[in-house]
Design goal:
Length: about 180
């Protein structure tokens, strides 16, 4: 099933709040409890899509309308000019939707969305060196493995190494049907 991306709706917030609370069950997503209030506050500020596109969050939705997770991005700057801007992106699927190929489809949809909507030449993603499932998703979508970011992420009380992947606009394969 090919998911679609759409703006997060207020009706999605309860499921997203539960998901953020339950993410602590995944060793790669536990950054501490932020509270449901902060999620609602951020949604009220800009619906997770602030002007300028420096960051954003979209709902990953199945054809039957079932909310399956979120796709998000934030800016990574490699210089002071707009041409040096890249987006670091990520996909979070609810546990019941993992292992079904949705991560690959959702990541492909996010890549196309970002390249179509923004003047950005580089997308990147990073994941824990032990998160082999996410590494396979990145590679299946066409991201190139660049290397290890030593001690780049702090979670669960210690620093963790990440694998960095990237895709350039020129790397994007033409969309195929079928």
């Amino acid at each position: 099933m090919r998911p679609i991306l759409r703006p997060v709706r207020e009706a999605d917030l309860d499921a997203l709040s539960r998901s953020e609370t339950e993410r602590a069950s995944s060793p790669y997503d536990d950054f501490g409890f932020t509270g449901a209030g902060s999620l609602r506050k951020r949604f009220a500020e800009d619906g997770f899509l602030p002007a300028g596109g420096e960051r954003g969050r979209l709902a990953v939705v199945l054809g039957d309308g079932d909310l399956a997770g979120t796709a998000s991005w934030h800016t990574a700057a490699y210089g002071p000019n707009a041409g040096s801007r890249a987006f670091n992106l990520g996909i979070v699927l609810f546990p019941e939707h993992r292992g079904q190929g949705l991560g690959v489809s959702a990541m492909r949809a996010l890549v196309r969305y970002l390249f179509e909507q923004f003047e950005v030449g580089r997308l990147e993603g990073s994941t824990d060196v032990e998160n082999l499932a996410m590494q396979r998703v990145a590679e299946r979508v066409g991201f190139q493995r660049e290397g290890i970011l030593r001690g780049a992420q702090f979670r669960l009380g210690k620093r963790h190494d990440l694998v960095l992947y990237s895709m350039l606009r020129d790397d994007l394969a033409p969309e195929t049907t079928g």
